[in-house]
Specification:
The complex is a heterodimer.
Chain A lengths: L6 H5 L5 H10 L4 E2 L11 H12 L12 H15 L9 E4 L1 H13 L5 E6 L5 H7 L3 E6 L10 H7 L4 E6 L12 H13 L3 E5 L24 E6 L12 E4 L2 H14 L5 H13 L1 H25 L11 E2 L10 H12 L1 E2 L1 E2 L11 E4 L4 H24 L1
Parallel strand pairs in A: 1-10, 3-4, 3-5, 5-6, 6-7
Antiparallel strand pairs in A: 2-8, 7-8, 9-12, 11-12
Helix pairs in contact in A: 3-10, 4-10, 5-6, 5-9, 11-13
Chain B lengths: L1 H10 L5 H8 L3 H13 L20 E9 L8 H8 L4 E6 L6 E7 L2 H12 L5 E8 L5 E2 L2 E2 L14
Antiparallel strand pairs in B: 1-3, 1-4, 2-3, 5-6
Helix pairs in contact in B: 2-3
Classes of the chains: A alpha/beta, B alpha+beta.
């Protein structure tokens, strides 16, 4: 029989999170700090609209780009929250989660051999989506001493004549790093000078604890060279509804729409009706959740300080990214032992790029009580590791 | 800051001063001072425990009584409300807009306790025109807290 498979896909490794998940899920009474989704349920008024849309029999397709009403609400929301102005009829596309938007944008913008700058550690799908779209990923290894922000020097050093797109994943999963307005201004000049485009993944935009999120698309000269990815999963605790959106200049959006049209048809209709409610009346829920995440973030950072666990202070998303270099073991080994000995699941930094070695992603999308229990186990574990090191 | 403290302890008054200061990102002394001040100012009027009495072997009956009253000159409803809330078995008294005037929440051990309070004490007050007693059959949610079993975390253990 002939090889049924495409060569590119067979060379792509599955997500590094998967193998640990398989071990953890076999374990009884394991607790977890390993998830990348909110612990809150979708606010009831939003769920209620989803239910209502089903009761009304709204089980049809929507237009390819998504419900007009939803696109209009999104354009108002983006303007109100992030000073972004997009034409709801031509420049906003509703997608099946932010992930679809990432895939579509690469496919719409890349020709074979085009280089894509991907700062890492970052979300697991940029690199494979780039490869599948024929692009060449060029990894920029971010540094803890820069709080995992992308510096102008790092950006400049990675640019070649083939560079076409910079992926800008902030607020960042897994580090929790943010790029403040001044950081973005410092790199936007380089982006414009080198005629690059930006894929700005702003799915965590609502979860910023330092200053309000700034979208790079709102800076002078950047709108027409930026594709913004956002969605409802993190901000409105709607992961399972699978709903996101892409915004950008019409020239790019026209092509992205075609890919979406042929591959997806349209995003789930009842999710779209629920999302209209989220956009209209969800700001208070978002603020409430942000405040709770922020409290847990402070709690974890305080506990790391008490345990002497080194961790730069993250100001975005719902992750901390502590360093485990003092233990002289790989992230994978640490995670496996922690899971086996204390039954706590965390994600190794290496799942988000090689430069995540020596770090863990610890999520605080958990209740305070769960965090306290997990921190107690973490304390026991690292004291044991330090004792072992002392004995050796 | 007061609003943040209150919002937190409204749901969890057992939090330690230390933890509360960490969670809100402020100094422990400051939290301590604010709490003391708010207690003195009666912004904080008490720290209570939310109990589902149905789960243990204690008989309790709760009624919500709609009361229509004649307001009194110069005092409005305050005087009659006071006469009612001074009874220790009265849990809560609210002035209500709509078809009646006062909502009185009453707790007793038996139906007889409640009915004797209504007939002997409440109805006999001069300014009370009429009462309508509603017994609570089941508490689903109280003080913003759902009383039934809390749902389990069904998320996968690790997700990207």
């Amino acid at each position: 029989m002939r090889n049924p498979l495409n060569e590119k896909i067979t060379t792509i490794k599955p997500s590094g999170i998967r193998k640990f998940f398989d071990i953890a899920s076999e374990m009884k009474d394991a607790i977890s700090l390993g998830v990348g989704e909110p612990d809150f349920d979708t606010p009831w008024h939003i769920r209620d609209e989803g239910i209502f849309s089903l009761e009304k029999g709204r089980t049809f397709y929507t237009s390819n780009a998504g419900l007009k009403e939803l696109r209009i609400e999104i354009s108002k929301y983006l303007s109100r929250r992030f000073h972004l102005e997009y034409d709801p009829l031509k420049e906003i596309l509703i997608t099946v989660g932010g992930s679809e938007g990432i895939d579509n944008a690469f496919r719409a913008m890349l020709d074979p051999g085009d280089e894509v700058l991907i700062p890492q550690p970052s979300y697991v799908s940029y690199e494979p989506c780039c490869i599948l779209a024929g692009g060449v990923p060029v990894i920029i290894e971010l540094k803890e001493e820069n709080q995992f922000r992308l510096t102008p020097e790092e950006l400049e050093a990675a640019i070649t004549p083939k560079t076409k797109i910079l992926v800008l994943p902030y607020p960042n999963n897994p580090t929790g790093a943010v790029m403040e307005k001044s950081d973005l201004e410092a790199i936007s000049e380089i982006i414009i000078r080198n005629d690059l485009f930006v894929l700005s993944d702003e799915i965590y935009a609502e979860l910023c604890y330092l200053e309000e999120h700034t979208s790079i698309a709102s800076l002078p000269g950047m709108r027409d060279r930026t594709v913004v990815i956002n969605g409802f999963s993190k901000s409105h605790a709607m992961t399972g509804w699978r709903l996101g959106y892409v915004c950008g200049p019409q020239e790019i959006m026209d092509q992205i729409l075609k890919i979406h049209q042929f591959a997806i048809m349209c995003a789930p209709t009842n999710s779209q009706y629920a999302a209209v409610e989220a956009m209209k009346n969800g700001d208070e829920d978002v603020a409430m959740m942000r405040e709770q995440y922020n409290q847990r973030r402070r709690y974890l950072m305080h506990e790391y300080g008490r345990l002497g666990l080194q961790c730069f202070e993250p100001f975005g998303a719902f992750y901390t990214f502590p360093s485990i270099r003092e233990f002289n073991m790989s992230s994978d080994d640490f995670v496996l032992r922690f899971l086996r000995e204390e039954k706590v699941a965390v994600v190794p930094g290496t799942a988000f790029g090689d430069c995540g070695e020596g770090f863990l992603r610890i999520s605080y999308a958990y209740s305070l009580d769960s965090l306290k229990e997990a921190v107690g186990r973490l304390e026991r574990f690292i004291l044991r590791l330090r004792r072992e090191a002392g004995d050796a | 800051m007061r609003e943040k403290i209150l919002t937190f302890i409204e749901k969890n008054s057992r939090v330690s001063l230390h933890d509360l200061a960490v969670l809100l990102g402020v100094d422990e002394t400051m939290v301590c001072n604010e709490l003391a001040a708010m207690e003195a100012e009666r912004v904080i009027c008490g720290y209570h425990t939310l109990i589902d009495w149905d789960k243990i072997d204690v008989e309790k009956v709760t009624a919500m009584i709609e009361v229509r009253v004649t307001p009194q000159r110069d005092m409005g409803f305050d005087k009659v409300a006071e006469r009612i809330y001074n009874y220790p078995e009265v849990h809560a008294v609210y002035l209500i807009s709509g078809g009646f005037d006062l909502m009185v929440t009453l707790e007793g051990k038996t139906l007889r306790d409640i009915s004797s309070f209504v007939t002997d004490k409440l109805s006999t007050l001069d300014s009370v025109l009429s009462t309508k007693t509603n017994f609570i059959l089941k508490k689903y949610k109280d003080h913003g807290t759902v009383m039934v079993e809390s749902p389990k975390d069904e998320r996968m253990l690790m997700t990207p």
